[in-house]
Design goal:
Helix content: 40-55%
CATH topology: Rossmann fold
CATH superfamily: NAD(P)-binding Rossmann-like Domain
Number of strands: 7
Strand order of the largest sheet: 3-2-1-4-5-6-7
Number of helices: 7
Distance between the termini: 36 Å
Shape: globular
Structural class: alpha/beta
Order of helices and strands: EHEHEHEHEHHEHE
CATH class: Alpha Beta
Largest sheet: 7 strands, parallel
Number of domains: 1
Strand content: 5-15%
Bound molecules: NADP nicotinamide-adenine-dinucleotide phosphate
Radius of gyration: 17 Å
Length: about 250
């Protein structure tokens, strides 16, 4: 029996990068996939690829701009109406935008915090009862930038605090909703995905003890463990998957 067989997993930000890799990995372990993002074309391409490779699972794309908390209520209704009941919620959608302190504006603050923190809070609010009833779990994708200010540097005055808030939110939910569900947090190090506009990684590489950038499959395999029953006594964890960058 495959590790995630019979589970239905909702992944936000499944249309690209780490979310897309998780969708392929989880489907490969037998899970049905509810994919959420804004980009219709990439969402439908993902679903075609998943259903072509894994005939035994269901997979469907639901478009939603997760910065709109009201749209999340409609998203929840649409997912339920399509016959999905969510076992595992993976809050992965996020944006990486760099701002020095003097560059931060109220609009930039709103965008980064609504995307990186608000989406996880309102998605959790919408789905936590269902996940609890089904004995499932929640995984939030933060970042090592939310753990260590020396990694975040001088240009992450919004991204790093947003990810730190997500880590705190995860642990708060883990504590308050135990033992009904587990809530964990995964902190990736640098992975070469579309999130980086600047693809010159020469400054980052020397700070990674493992000597290479992360691959989305590295994050996906660790996520698959955390959401599976193999991690049944793990809650409130903050797992770095970063090749040692945060040591
Ligand atoms: N790559 C890294 O090095 C790295 C390191 C640490 C942490 N992370 C975290 O890992 C997560 C995934 O990153 P990634 O590298 O895979 O980035 P990515 O390739 O840019 O993908 C980001 C995903 O988030 C979705 N998204 C963004 N804003 C959204 C919104 N308003 N509503 C709905 N969906 C939205 C995008 O979907 P649409 O475009 O379809 O809306 C896309 O699927 C992020 O939270 C990021 O902070 C990444």
């Amino acid at each position: 029996m495959q590790r995630l067989q019979g589970k239905t997993i909702l992944i936000t930000g499944a249309t690209s990068g780490l979310g897309e890799a998780m969708a392929h990995c989880f489907a490969g372990e037998g899970a049905s996939i509810v994919a959420v993002g804004r980009n219709h074309a990439r969402g439908e391409t993902l679903i075609d690829a998943l259903t072509a490779r894994h005939s035994a699972i269901r997979a469907q794309f639901f478009p939603c701009d997760l910065t709109d908390a009201h749209a999340i209520g409609d998203l929840r209704k649409a997912i339920t109406a399509s016959g999905f009941a969510i076992d595992v919620l993976v809050n992965n959608a996020g944006i990486f935008k760099t701002y020095r302190l003097e560059e931060v504006t109220p609009e930039a603050y709103d965008l980064v915090f609504r995307t990186n923190v608000g989406s996880a809070i309102f998605m959790t609010q919408a789905f936590i009862d269902e996940v609890c009833q089904r004995g499932g779990n929640i995984l939030n994708i933060a970042s090592i930038g939310g753990l260590q200010s020396y990694i975040a540097g001088r240009s992450q005055y919004l991204y790093a605090p947003s990810k730190a808030a997500l880590i705190e939110f995860s642990q708060l939910c883990a504590k308050n909703y135990a033992p009904d569900i587990r809530v964990n947090c995964l902190c990736p190090g640098p992975n070469d995905t579309p999130i980086y506009e600047n693809k010159d990684f020469s400054r980052i590489l020397p700070s990674i003890p493992m000597g290479r950038m992360g691959k989305p499959a590295d994050v996906a395999r660790a996520a698959s463990f955390l959401i599976s029953d193999d991690a049944s006594y793990i809650t409130g964890a903050v797992l770095t998957v970063d090749g040692g960058s945060s040591i």
